[in-house]
Amino acid sequence: MSRARVRTSRFRLTAGVAVALAATLAGPATVATAAPAGAAAVAQQGAGDAVFPFPTGVVTTAGPTGFLADRTDDVVWTRYADGSGTTFPKSAAVTYRGAAGADIVVASEGTRHTVHDMANGGDPVVIDVPYKLHEVNGSTLVMVDTATDELHLVSRTPGGEVVDRKVTGMPAGVPWEFYGSTPGTVAVQTSAPDHGFRLAVVDVATAAAVETYDVGNYSGFAQVTPDRVLWESPYGQTTIVDRKTKRAETLPYRAQIALGGDWLAITGGDKVVVDGVTYPNKPIVLKSLKDGRKVPLLDLASRVAPVGDGTLLVSGGTFAQGRGLFRISLDASGTPVATMIGDGQSPLEMVLERVNIPSVYRFDGTDKHVTWEANQQDLGVALDLTHVATGRKVSLWSYYDTFIRWDGYLDQVIGAYNGAYTWKMTAYPGSGVGPAAVKTGTTTVDRGTAPRDFNDNAHADALVRDSSGNLSAYDLSQLRAMGNSPDCHEEGCPPVVRDPKPDVLGTGWNTYTLMASPGNAAGSASDDVVGRDRDGVLWLHRSDKQKLLPRTKVGGGWNIYNKITGGSDLNGDGRGDLLATDKAGVLWFYASTGNATAPFKARTKIGGGWGVYNLLTAPGNIAGAFGGDLLARDTAGTLWLYLGKGDGTFTARREIGGGWQKYSHVIPAGRNGKGVADLYAVGPSGSALYYGRDSTTRPFEAAYALPLRSDSTRFRTFF
Fold first, then answer.
1. Number of other CB atoms surrounding residue 197 within 10 Å
2. φ, ψ for residue 301 (rounded to 5)?
3. pLDDT of 267-290, one tens digit each?
4. pTM for the whole thing?
C-alpha cells in the first residue's frame, strides 16, 4: 500500500527573502499600523517580550525589536513588546526584504528602494539607484551593477546624501549568492569558470572583501560571525572555519552559529542525528562548542532567524504548548532554553476535526467527494472502507488533492458490494511530527443490480466451477484487469490483477452435468442458476445477494438435452428465459414465469437442425434488435448470430466469423455503455473480451486478449 505524502521543510537561516507584493510602493501612507485583536500581553517572557497571537505566515528576518513575516496577502512587521503589527500590502510591482538581525524593512519597486527603520518609527528613507538589490545589511543596500557584475554598498546619510561605495578586493567571478547573517558583515558567494565557487567576507564599514574561502561546490547557505565563517555543502554537511587560525572542521549535519558564538544550532529533516544520537521528529538541537553538551529544544523547528542580539527566533512548536514563535536564549546557568513569545493558537499534533462523507453511495454521478477539515493544511490522508458482510475493503489516498473520490471498486478491482460499510480516515501530518489523527464512521452502498450479477455489486460475473465442485462468481472487472500492463509506472495507471479473488456461491456442483443462468426467471432480485443432475432432474438455485438459496426441483426428463443456455429475454416480458437442444438437434424454448415453484412454462419448439452446433450462449441484446439474441458455434469453429424477434423466435442466422474453436466456453459479459452485450470467451490457450458494437453486421470489436485459461483445476467450467 502506498504511503501518505509527507513534505519536508528544509532548515534555513533566512537572511532576506524577496516577496512579491500586491500594492504599489508609496510613502508612509501606504503602511498601516495597528495592534491585532487580542494583542494584550498574556505573560511576560523576558525583557521586552510578551506572548501575543502569532500571525500566520513565514518568518523571514528578525531584529532586536520585532520580526518580518510573509503572509498570503501582505507582509507584516510584528513587535515583541506588545504584538502590534505594521502591515505592508502586496502588489506584483513591489518586493520586500528585511535585514537579518536588524529592525529594517526595505520596499523595492524598480530602482526605487524605501528603507523603513521599524525600531524608531522615523520617516522612510528613499534610495534611487540603477542597481539590482540582493541583500540588506542594517540600513545598507547590498547591490550589483548588472552591466559590470561589480558589487556596491549603497546607503543614505542623515542629511539625505546617497552614498555609493564599490566593494574592493572581491575575488574573480560573478556574485552569485548573498548572506547578511551578521550586521556589519556580508558573505558573498562568487562563481568563476577557473576558480569554482568562493566565499568573500565583505566588511560593510570599509566596503572591502577582507577574506576569501574556497567552498568547492555551490553552497546554499553561509554565515559570518566575528570569530568564524560557516557554509553548508549540498550534501547536508557544514564547514566551520576559525577566522584567526583558519582551522576548518566539517560536520555531518546542517548547523548555524548561535547564542553569542559558543553554540551550534542544528536541525535536519525527519530527524536530527548529532554525534551518533538520534533526536526524533524535527527538533532544533543546541550543541556547545566549548564542552560538547547537546540540548534538544522544541518538538518541531521549521524556520530559524537570528535576532542580532545573539538569540534566535524559531517557528515551530511543542506538544505541550502548541504551534507558535519561540525565542531561544541562555538561562541564568548558561543553558539554552526555548520560550514561546508568539502563540499560533493551534495544537502541534494533527487534529482531524470533521470528515464529510456521503451517507449513501450509488456511483451514479451524484456522489460527492470525501472531504475533511483539519487544523493543518499540509497533510496526507488515507481512507479505508470495509464491507461489513464480507470484510473486503479498499484503501484510498490523497497526496496533493483536498478530497478523495471513490470510483466504486474495492481492492483487487472488485465492484463495491451493496450494503453497510465502515470507514476509517487517517490524517498524517505533513511536518512528519506527531501521531496521525483518526476518525471512523459508517456509510452504505446502494447501486442496484445488473444482468448476471451474482454477488450484489451491479457488476456482471463469470460463473466458474472448479474441479472440487465449488461454484464461484468472478467479477468480470477483475478478469479484465488481468490484461492490464504492469509496465505503466505513471500515477493513475490501471491496476493489474494476477490472482483474482472470487465470491464462493456454493459447493457440491459436480453433481450437475449441465448448468446455465436463465436470468431472473423465478422473480429474484438478481439472476438465478439452474443445474441438471445425472438423473436428468433440473434444479433451480435462486440468487440472494452474495449467495444462492437452497435448490428447488424444477422437474425430471432433462437428460434428453445435450446443451442448455439462458439469460436472454426472448419474449419481452422482462425476465430471462431458457433454451435447450435435444440429442436430435431440435431447439426448444422455455419461457420463464417469475414463479419459483414453477419457474418455466411448457416448452415450445423453435426448430430442428441445431445439431451442427457444439456451443450455445444467450447473452441478451447484442445488436439492438427487438428481443434477446442467441449465439451458436458450429463444429468448424464459425460463430453465428441469431437475432431475437421478441416472440421466442429468431431471424435467419448471420455469420460473425471463424476461429472460435479455440474457446471451450463463450459466456455473457454484461452490458456496456452502449447498452448491448459484451462476450467473454475462454479456452485452454487463453481468454478474451469482445466488446459489443451495437451492430448487426459487425457486432463485436476485435478480441481484447487476457491471460486466464480454462480447463485447469481452478477454472474448470464457465457459464
1. 19
2. -125, 110
3. 876 678 888 888 887 889 999 999
4. 0.74
